[in-house]
Amino acid sequence: MKTRPGSPGEGAGPPAQAAGLPPPAERGATVIPDRVVARIAAQAARTAQSQRAAVPPDRDGPTAPHASAAVRTGSVRLHLTMDLPYPSDIPRVCARIQQDVAERVAQLTGLRVGEVTLTVRRLVTAADASRGRVR
Fold this sequence. Notes:
Elements: H1 15-18, H2 24-27, H3 34-52, E1 66-72, E2 75-85, H4 90-109, E3 112-124, H5 126-131
Helix pairs in contact: 3-4
């Protein structure tokens, strides 16, 4: 099998060295703004809310989670605000949602998630959810 010069089978080294770029440590860093991390966290919270708390993922409805993020030196602190169903095991559901969001944000951003604070905005009964209203 023949390979072209610089192809993976040739062992010419990483493309960065072939292109004459400085080493990765000297090139700089990728910076992800707080608002971008917050949007990723909100989407992850919406997914976790529908999976862990059995709340339909209605993006525009009253149950849509809100997130804020504070990114500092490679780590992030997240704050989530969301509705949860009543009755449910609130501490267990919150812990699972926090874990799911932390894992997803870390996976998508490469940041270390140091803390996820979750505030329950309201408890939604099945009757409120079926009417599309939250009291």
